[in-house]
Amino acid sequence: QVQLVESGGGLVQAGGSLRLSCAASGRTFSRITTGWFRQAPGKEREFVASIRWSGGITYYADSVKGRFTISRDNAKNTVYLQMNSPKPEDTAVYYCAARVTMAADYVRVSMVAEYDYWGQGTQVTVSS
């Protein structure tokens, strides 16, 4: 069992910045892959970013590339999503997810079905 808890969401101005955190507890996995997804009202849950256990391989959705940065601190069992220059269209509930089985480095791990555990989500609202 892995528990994931997101935090850091809230109201932010367009062009500002925000950092989301995902704290993991329970079993530890040395090869864990973590992803961030988001879901806006009336829309499907969509991929935002993923990161391998080492932190050296990351993938981003085109919509956030260049603005968002995913990182992790394994010593703290925490994954982050740095949101720079957020836009109103970034408004959504953001979810952290974990995959505990190894995925090849070239795989984006961008699908909901590829993950084993999910957090409860944190609301991010971007005002213009």
Features:
4-stranded antiparallel sheet, 128 residues, 0% helix, globular, 7-stranded mixed sheet, mainly beta
- Characterize the biggest β-sheet: 7 strands, mixed
What is the straight-line distance between the termini?
Answer: 40 Å
- Please state the average pLDDT score: 94
Number of helices: 0
Which parts are unreliable, with pLDDT below 50 for 5 consecutive residues or more? Answer: none
Globally, the shape reads globular
Indicate the percent of residues in helices: under 10%
User: What's the β-strand tally?
Assistant: 11
Classification by helices and strands: mainly beta
Radius of gyration, rounded?
A: 14 Å
Order of helices and strands: EEEEEEEEEEE
Strand content: over 45%
In short, what is this structure?
The chain is mostly beta strands and 128 residues long. The chain has strands spanning 2-7, 10-13, 17-26, 33-39, 46-51, 58-60, 68-73, 78-84, 92-99, 117-118, 122-127.
Give the helix/strand layout.
Blueprint: E1 2-7, E2 10-13, E3 17-26, E4 33-39, E5 46-51, E6 58-60, E7 68-73, E8 78-84, E9 92-99, E10 117-118, E11 122-127
Parallel strand pairs: 2-11
Antiparallel strand pairs: 1-3, 3-8, 4-5, 4-9, 5-6, 7-8, 9-10, 9-11
